[in-house]
Amino acid sequence: xxxxxxxxxxxxxxxxxxxxxxxxxxxxxxxxxxxxxxxxxxxxxxxxxxxxxxxxxxxxxxxxxxxxxxxxxxxxxxxxxxxxxxxxxxxxxxxxxxxxxxxxxxxxxxxxxxxxxxxxxxxxxxxxxxxxxxxxxxxxxxxxxxxxxxxxxxxxxxxxxxxxxxxxxxxxxxxxxxxxxxxxxxxxxxxxxxxxxxxxxxxxxxxxxxxxxxxxxxxxxxxx
Length: 224
Hints:
Layout: H1 8-20, E1 29-30, H2 32-39, H3 43-55, E2 59-62, E3 66-69, H4 74-98, H5 101-120, H6 123-140, H7 144-164, H8 173-186, H9 189-205, H10 219-223
Antiparallel strand pairs: 1-3, 2-3
Helix pairs in contact: 1-3, 2-3, 4-6, 4-7, 4-9, 5-6, 5-8, 6-7, 8-9
């Protein structure tokens, strides 16, 4: 039986996993022809994949040059976390004012997924679930504007984190999310603001923006 060809979502997942595992480094060129051969799909499907990855901020497409893994620099990383802090401060303020027990239960349920991913050592799931936790906070804060702005920032900061986070750092995300939930439940607005600020600062401080690229850029080696 002929092996089923991967769809767009599956290829995107594989590329994202390779970025998380640092097999694909910032600036790596993603050649249409080679990706087509590696995944055994048409170049039309590869173009669909690249369009999705570009939309999500994982890939930059440069006219007449091609597609490259996005390469956020130190200044952009600092800007992203500065903006996230300002937006998420407002999210927390709104949330403390309107949180319900049902909302707390949703946050608790999500936290269980984060802890399970952490226990399995699943970095891809951990990164995605961490970002989704912050998006859930924005959803519960009931602000379409804040949610829309934060969505782009979370995608970008997730990319920055997986690319530049020091390997030896312990993933404190679920623990700090647990603390944040407890403070929000208590109605302590000042404490919740401080907790969010500290949490985002911890993530930023774990980045090593001076890392050198030592990984292979050969796509056959990356995806074999």
